[in-house]
């Protein structure tokens, strides 16, 4: 056998040996890539967990502020509710207008009594009936305010917004108009409409800058 023939016979064996040696190397290369991918994935998961934890903490802080805001506005509305017409009202306080018609006055007082006694759903019905029966009454502004407040107390937030906005639209100079917008903001917060609540509070500051409600609105905006 010549040297050339011997080399030709040896060539397949050499190729086989090379392939055999190359296979573990290729496998080792794939394992290294897999390990790197796993490490990268673990790093990404860790970063996501840290981001989620931070987001949860921020959300908790926001919820705390929101609860404080709702409690504060509820307190303000409760304060406003104490201004409901009463036989024992302070004589130096602004007086509720009196209706010229005794029957009209009686209808208003009946609804007001329900409101004072905390029977808000019944009070809302009474004030709504009064407004429908006496739309041009001197008591219409007050009736709208207490209708909206009754709806808020009954958790009828959407109708409360509509009622208070009607009051502000139809009676913009009514002393209760800025307070009505405070109730609107409270309704919107209850409905998780933060953008709307901010707009309502900003409107109080813009349209009723000298009112006590404007000062309240400024402090509330800092919490939203």
From TrEMBL:
It holds the Pfam family YfiO. GO terms for cellular component: outer membrane-bounded periplasmic space. Residues 81-105 are annotated as: Disordered. InterPro entries: BamD-like, CpoB, CpoB_C, TPR-like_helical_dom_sf. Keywords: Cell cycle, Cell division, Periplasm, Signal. GO terms for biological process: FtsZ-dependent cytokinesis. Residues 1-28 form the signal peptide. Residues 103-223 form the Outer membrane lipoprotein BamD-like domain. It is found in: Periplasm. Its main location: periplasm. Belongs to the CpoB family. NCBIfam families: tol_pal_ybgF (TIGR02795). Mediates coordination of peptidoglycan synthesis and outer membrane constriction during cell division. HAMAP family: CpoB. This is Cell division coordinator CpoB. It comes from Castellaniella defragrans (Alcaligenes defragrans).
